[in-house]
Design a protein that fits this description.
127 residues, alpha+beta, 5-stranded mixed sheet
């Protein structure tokens, strides 16, 4: 897993990406296609057309970082099948599974929904 204490949300680019792009090219995709700022603290996942390579772009508080991975066997899941509003959101756990080559990441939600801290729950029942 990527070693950072500042994990915000994780968003995947909803189309195959030319991974020859570096910091500026990937940051431009984040702004143009996802409508977000690369310096927000969130992580942004990009996958090549052949699904053998992936890059994660994130701001660690001092600068942009890129984590790159190339699978030697198998392929990364095709996340563009889960597109909603032009983007795919993953949990940090799903990102870790994705980078390990888990095939289920692209097919079904693997993490429970986020907890609403303002919702009162008493003995397992919401009120």
């Amino acid at each position: 897993m990527i070693a950072t204490a500042r994990v915000g949300r994780v968003f995947a680019h909803a189309a195959p990406t030319d991974l020859r792009k570096g910091f500026d090219g990937l940051a431009a995709l984040v702004l143009e296609h996802l409508g977000r700022e690369a310096t927000s603290g969130d992580m942004y996942l990009f996958v090549s057309r052949d699904r053998l390579r992936a890059k994660v772009l994130w701001w660690d508080g001092t600068g942009l970082c890129i984590h790159a991975k190339r699978l030697e066997q198998g392929r990364f899941a095709a996340l563009w099948g889960r597109v909603r509003d032009g983007q795919v959101e993953l949990s940090a756990a799903e990102l870790a599974l994705f980078l390990e080559g888990c095939r289920e990441v692209g097919h079904r939600r693997l993490s429970p929904p986020a907890v609403d801290p303002y919702r009162k729950v008493y003995f397992g029942a919401a009120r």
